Amino acid sequence: MATLETQGISLHYELFGDRRKPPVMLVAGLGGAGSSWGAQVARFAADHFVVLPDHRGTGLTTRPADGYTIAQHAADLASLIAHLELGPTHIVGTSTGGAIAQVMALDHGAQVRSIAMASAFARVDAYLKREFALRRALVAEADARAVFSCYALFLFSPRYASEHPEYVAAWIERAASAPPERDIALKRIDMIMAHDVVPRLGAIRQPALVICGDQDFCTPLHLSEEIARAMPGAEFTVLPGGGHFIHVEQEARFFEAIRAFIARH
Q1: Domains along the chain?
Q2: Which of 114, 139, 165, 167 has the fewest CB atoms within 10 Å of its CB?
Q3: What is the reported pTM?
Q4: Beta-sheet strand order (sheet of 112-118)
């Protein structure tokens, strides 16, 4: 484990695998902690040098009062790549991490070799506005167990939740036992609601993969379709039956799709 003093924060990160192999940065979703990648870390580390950061305000990274924008998160992580002297790095982001990957490619292109965006979005449409307005109200008013019990209803596909109730219950327990600070959680929701780079996506020149489960009720498939349409040449993969947490629900299929994409580039 290590930290980098950058952009006004102490950015916590971990490194896995052989530094001589192609570098991959795994960028977490709204929760922000690198540990949310679970077993995917070991899978990627077998053939890549993996950089696993905690977003500002999450995990072991410091909790500043400001800087909760997608653009600032992109700057934070780009500075880490530069610090490590990795050269252009493959960025794999899920959900909010996919939004951060978009802005890293747009604003810090020299640090980015390719981007893979899983369960992602490039703007907040009417559906997401309703969803995140409700999530914001829950975070502001409800206790942590109620918040994460509700979250689990749309982060996991119905079939997965039905077939793996113990895993879902354990996820709720872990999340509720160490919830984020309420004010930071609200600021992170606000940064999602402010994100809109659809008009800029066509300027991304790095190879891109868009991947989504067709049972994602958090950032539904049509949002991934929108990203793919706006990025000429982007590859697009749909995992049937997958929910928002496709990197958990379909661990092997998710990894193989992204591994093959990275290998091509």
Answers
A1: 2-124+196-264 (3.40.50.1820)
A2: 165
A3: 0.97
A4: 2-6, 9-16, 49-53, 23-27, 89-94, 112-118, 208-213, 235-239
